[in-house]
Amino acid sequence: MTHDRLMSQYTAAQEESARGDDSILASGEQDLIDEAEESAQGQDLYRAPGRRQFVKEELEQAEAPEWIVGGSVAFPSPETRDGVVSRRQELYDAMRLLERAVARPSGLADWRIDIEAALHDLRSALSEHVAQVEGGGGLFEQVLAHAPHLASEIDSLRRDHRELLETCNQALSMSADWEPLLLRRRVNVLLARLALHRQQGAELLFDAYNVDLAAGN
User: Fold this and answer.
1) What are phi and psi of 215, to 5 degrees?
2) What does the alpha-carbon distance between residue 133 and residue 138 come to, in Å, rounded to a whole number?
3) Would you say 119 and 201 are in contact if contact means Cβ atoms under 8 Å apart?
4) Residue 184 CB: number of other CB atoms within 10 A?
5) How far from chain centre, in Å, is Cα 7?
6) Phi-psi region of 20 (alpha: psi -120 to 50; beta: other; left: phi over 0)
7) What pLDDT is attached to residue 39?
8) How far apart, in whole angstroms, are the C-alpha atoms of residue 32 and residue 24?
9) CATH topology of domain 78-216
10) What residues does each domain of the chain span?
11) What are the pLDDT digits (tens) for 150-206?
């Protein structure tokens, strides 16, 4: 397609759009603009007709409530999606807060106080995460209905939940008595186990729905 023909079509598209006819715009006016510019630059590159409109439709479909961008299989429900993403972020933020608190010099007067406060926040975030994924109609039930072969992975995550909450409660109850080095070790072990748990949760969602949930953080 020559540059003159491209510019002629582009001009026609602009005139029809000005008259209130959006059909040209919807079917690929941007394609004409790009092709005209490339032709003028001596880059007579081929573009499939309507390619940009096709990409736009795919993105709109991916951003619809029943989808998570990056996945190729429908996510269980918008409520589950939003809950999973929100709880995951809250847990991540609580982990970072605890990591910063325990990394401070233990000689500071408020060192243990800050760790205890961060542990409380972490336990709250973890409890909400557990309730959201294990509750009736929650993520685990929906994954099992969609991909029953992942039952063993879900059982493993459930065990993690119990053990992580127990470890968090133990750290809270003993934070005032443990020596700084021991407290640091226990907290760092807890954080490492939580990080692994989050990775395994992301793996479960990828296996079930081809969704990369870990890309956000």
Assistant:
1) -65, -25
2) 5
3) no
4) 15
5) 43
6) left
7) 43
8) 10
9) Four Helix Bundle (Hemerythrin (Met), subunit A) (1.20.120)
10) 3-62, 78-216
11) 999 999 999 999 999 999 999 999 999 999 999 999 999 999 999 999 999 999 988
